[in-house]
Structures
1.
Amino acid sequence: MLAEKLLAAWYENNSIPHALLFADANTIMAENYAKLLLANDALFASRNHPDYYSVAPELGKNIITVEQIRTLVRQIMVKPHSSKYNIVLIARAECLNLNAANALLKTLEEPISNTIIMLVTSKMQLLPSTIISRCQVLRGNNNFVVDSKIHKILKDDLNRFLTNNIDPLDLAVNWSQYKNINIMDFLQILLVLLLERQKAQYNKNIWKFINNIYDKLHDLQLAPQLNIQLLLEDLLIRSRVCT
């Protein structure tokens, strides 16, 4: 699953985004990642870990209030007690009311050091675009087989591109040949390959390319009707100076 590969690559490269949005209501994936990042499994299992904070609608209600978010922000201003990060998990994030979303947005715009915020939702379309744009969106329902023939062809072509053996315009024009792989998957596979390269040997230009991909993923999350070929041409041509 690409989402899991991305999460693992970020962890191994010490490059975890400060805000993650799990768009398929994948609470299990989010909790497993929180467990990986936190010290002391027993405390996490008992929900008493001092560096783990969870927010959800109050019992019997369908709203996350501004008071809940303000309390959360005060709590995570404290440095982690025993882990590298304070971890926040906001379940049913679509239930943030307007004031709560605005309060959270301020924290996403000015990230608190050593803090990772995870939002989980099954209704991303109900979240404000300003919230979505400041998160790295992860989808857990990629339905193609990672070891499939098409996936291997795509990886081979992307590796050829990264070693300057394929023209970026050709790749942009022909990307749709990779059947059953949509543009979000295409970009995330490329992102995984770059993170693997960065793990093997640090290169500041690769990080520039990675940031460019993040930007395009955000563009697509907010405006999925964008012209995909033009988006890819812009990304891949600009990336040539980075790789």
Note: The first helix runs from residue 2 to 12.
2.
Amino acid sequence: MVKLQQDRAVRTRETIIKGAAEVFDEYGFNGASISRIMKRAGVSQGAMYFHFKSKEDLARAVMNAQPDTVVPRLDSQGLQRIVDMTFVWAWQIQRDVLLRAGVRLTNEQEGTSVRDASPYQEWAQILEMTLRQAQQEGEVGESVDVRQLAELLVSACTGMQMYANAVSGRQDLPERVVAMWRILLPGVASEGIAESISLDVRRFL
């Protein structure tokens, strides 16, 4: 009985987050309201406030769910895994409302009551950890500062998706990510490794 209640609570929370993501994606943080999110999710006020005390709490939950929409989809390792993370992210942001809403909320924090750098920091930590492993395995040059590279990738992808959204509705984002790696790989990969890295984004269609 207890497990059944716990499972129901988890499903309700996931339903609320999905509904919130849809509303945040359409209206942004300032244009979204708790009542609109409740209606979209199909939950009662009691259920909403049992899981989330405010719109700010909901926004943070959506923002912090971003890595969960990308990382579990990968089975590659080393430097290829880093490249693949950015490829999956570029495809998923066009198709996954949770990722897209999280990106919008993270980018639009200025002028809202939400101040949370943790989504950027979490991405940087995930990338740094994987880059460090790739460096230990000899795939990333010894002179490369993996922390700085991880932060550079987060910064580059953040700006890239904003630019792509403005000029193409992000339709050309995967191609822009490929172009980024064609520039970066020769400078960060160990000798002979860059040529072995697949830049075929069609693998994730």
Note: The chain is about 70% helix and 0% strand.
3.
Amino acid sequence: KYFLTLYFQVPEHAELAWILGCLTNVPRVLRLPQWKMKRASQNNEGTVGLLTYPVLQAADILLYKSTHVPVGEDQVLHLELAQDIAQHFNKKYGEFFPVPKAILSTTKKIKSLRDPTVKMSKSDPQKLATVNIADSPDEIVLKFRKAVTDFTSEVTYDPDGRPGVSNLVSIHAAVTGLSIKEVLHQSAGLDTAHYKMVVAESVIQKFAPIRNEIKKLQEDKSHLIKVLEDGAQKAKELAAPIYQEIRRLVGFQ
């Protein structure tokens, strides 16, 4: 049902991104909040690659004629760009691309442990802000112990008024499969310091089998290489005929 590959193994991704870029207005891309945020983190000197990355994402989706895409809440606007590009292409060259729809999980966005007003990101320079799947139990405990909350000890869920504690509740619900209401019921009577350790332990238990599998796979590089090679072959089999038809439609053949 799925396969893994690397970009350079399927050049149709980059080639289609160039074609789609020719159908995309610059102001449309400049409006995306991800561009504004990332550019600000680069001293307002964002690169062309960063600016056009959402178009590459659209190519990733449309190259396989995807109909549904699992995304986080922060990527919904990027998917809407892919929808706009698909509709523009269809209007210009005839009905070809399905207009992809978003699949959102119940936990739409996890916030930073150091600044719960922004999303958790693997590129965050603050190491304590992000929990990585490969983190050791001690690292996970430290990050949650240092998580920003507030001066109220009770565990409640109020994303606007208490973003830090609410973020912990969201994480707890996500890794346990419980609802927010169930998490709050289980946490009644706990202060935030104790609750941080409860959440940390839940995350450790959730990540443990995944982390063990990652370690196992990292020790078998030949298997990983084969997975990528097989994935590249499957991707090419799917992408090549679709891309050839795109080339024909836009007049490259």
Note: The mean pLDDT is 93.
